[in-house]
Design goal:
The chain is α/β, with parallel strands linked by helices. Helices cover 40% and strands 15% of the residues. Helix 8 crosses helix 10 and helix 8 crosses helix 11 (255-267). It starts with 6 loop residues before the first helix and ends in a 16-residue tail after the last helix. The site of guanosine-5',3'-tetraphosphate has 15 residues, from helix 6.
Length: 283
């Protein structure tokens, strides 16, 4: 499968990021807990150097708990603060404010030594499309937030959300461009729905995912669809089509439809908690 990205979007996203990152003390980077590496863009490390760094394993409700823990350890060992969150349901959100203070303690101490007291930490949320940035900002800011900046009659500037007296959050998240450094990364981003469906061949995607599940999560397909999952990936897909009555005229199996249904089941967590990449495969 060949993946494309649009250089125009990429250039604009990068320019925005470079501008906004100058204004902040802390980068809050959201990754998808199911694919924590493929959903990062490694350039954020260069862009965010000299900033405090917090990684959120978002959508942790859709990934396997033991791997969430293993990934948290992996990133902590690299010097990041890490929190597992479920932005949709609010899981892990309460601990964030404390973690932000902890992640920025060097900056707060530097300020204190220079006589700057009570200057709030300024933070920005970043991540690739669909990773949950807006959901997270809403969950964190809730209803109690006050917007600062952009007062009537004042030149249009950045909007900051005051979370409390110690923390302000830039209200527009930074969009990181996905990085298709190889086929596997592209496939994983497609699985989680970060690549637009129109440019995907659903059946090929489904076959790849079936292969992955057969290897890493034996029994999941059999249990979910009540099928024999021991054959090759295409046989499995046909079995899914049969079990879910995906048929085209003449009662032929509609594997395209089955592929869509299967991918949708995965994306929405109906196949259970599944992690698609593991820390031991990275340095
Ligand atoms: P973005 O700003 O990074 O582009 O992402 P956005 O917040 O729009 O979230 C993308 C999708 O991911 C949304 O689903 C959102 O509900 C879902 N999402 C965000 N965080 C979590 C999480 O922690 N767990 C789960 N399970 N889902 C999460 P959607 O299908 O676009 O909308 P909806 O069905 O929720 O209305």
């Amino acid at each position: 499968m060949h993946f494309q990205w649009y250089p125009g979007h990429m250039t604009k996203a990068k320019r925005m990021m470079q501008e906004n990152i100058k204004l902040i003390d802390l980068v809050i980077e959201l990754v998808d807990a199911r694919v924590p590496m493929s959903s990062r863009n490694p350039e954020i490390d260069e862009l965010g150097k000299n900033k405090a760094r917090l990684i959120l394993l978002n959508k942790s409700d859709l990934a396997e708990d033991r791997w969430n823990d293993a990934w948290a350890e992996y990133f902590k060992a690299k010097g990041f603060s890490v929190v597992k969150v479920n932005s949709k349901k609010g899981g892990g959100i309460k601990s964030i404010q404390g973690v932000i203070q902890e992640a920025c303690k060097e900056k707060i101490e530097r300020d204190r030594k220079r006589g700057i007291l009570n200057r709030p930490v300024r933070a920005m949320v970043v991540g690739i499309p669909n990773v949950g940035k807006s959901t997270f900002i809403n969950a964190l800011a809730g209803k109690a937030c006050t917007k600062t900046g952009n007062k009537p009659g004042v030149t249009k500037g950045k909007q900051w959300i005051r979370l409390n007296k110690n923390v302000e959050l830039l209200d527009t998240p930074g969009i990181l461009w996905p990085k298709f450094e190889d086929q596997t990364v592209g496939l994983r981003l497609a699985f989680i729905g970060s690549i637009k469906d129109e440019i995907l061949q659903k059946e090929e995607l489904a076959l790849d995912m079936i292969g992955f599940l057969q290897k890493n999560y034996a029994g999941v397909l059999a249990e979910k669809y009540g099928i024999d999952e021991s054959g090759d990936a295409f046989t499995c897909l046909k079995n899914i089509a049969e079990s879910r009555h995906c048929l085209v005229r003449g009662n032929e199996l509609d594997t395209d439809k089955a592929a869509m249904l299967f991918i949708d089941d995965f994306r929405n967590g109906r196949l259970g908690k599944l992690t698609l990449e593991f820390p031991q495969d990275y340095d």
